[in-house]
Structures are given as C-alpha cells and as structure tokens.
Design brief:
The protein is mostly helical and 99 residues long. Helices cover 71% and strands 0% of the residues.
Length: 99
C-alpha cells in the first residue's frame, strides 16, 4: 500500500463534499486523485459507489452482460489504474538504476 494516505484522505473528502453539495466535478476530482495516487482498489470502490449513487439501478449489474460500460465512474477508475500501471512500469524500465 502506498505511503500517501493523506492524498487518499483528501480524495475521500472531495468525494464526500461533491455528494453533499451535489456538484459532480468534485466527485470526479476525488476519483482522479484516488486513482492516480496509487489507491486502485479504493478508487474502484469509490467509482462503483458514485455510479450506484447517481442512479444506476442495482439490477443492471447482473442483467446486462457488459455491465461495466453502464458504470462510467468505475470504468474511468479502471482506465486510470491501467494507465498509471503502464506509465510506472515504463518509467521503471527506462530510468537508470542509481547506487
């Protein structure tokens, strides 16, 4: 688990503020921060929570075969997780090892 717990706390506070104030850009900003700071499981859970909160009926999770396409926040979190993983892997390969 990454050592940047303060970024996760800020992300959760942004999501909570976006839910309380009903202003969705705060929620998306919190999701982006959680995803890009390395907390992938938490960002997927936040994305699923936001999708369920914003009106995706729970029945759609099991009826539609491609149910992840109905969940835009969860899909965004998954894409950001994959993008971060690819960028970090490429940086580790290309950066020279220092003693």
């Amino acid at each position: 688990m990454p050592n940047n717990i303060s970024q996760l706390v800020v992300a959760v506070v942004l999501v909570a503020a976006g839910v309380i104030v009903p202003w969705w850009p705060l929620c998306i900003l919190g999701l982006l921060l959680a995803s890009l700071s390395g907390h992938s499981a938490t960002s997927l859970l936040i994305g699923l929570y936001l999708d369920l909160l914003w009106g995706i009926p729970p029945g759609h999770l099991f009826v539609i075969p491609w149910h992840w396409l109905v969940l835009p926040c969860t899909l965004l979190a998954a894409v950001l997780f994959i993008a971060r993983r690819v960028v970090v892997t490429r940086m580790m390969v290309k950066m020279p090892k220092r003693i």
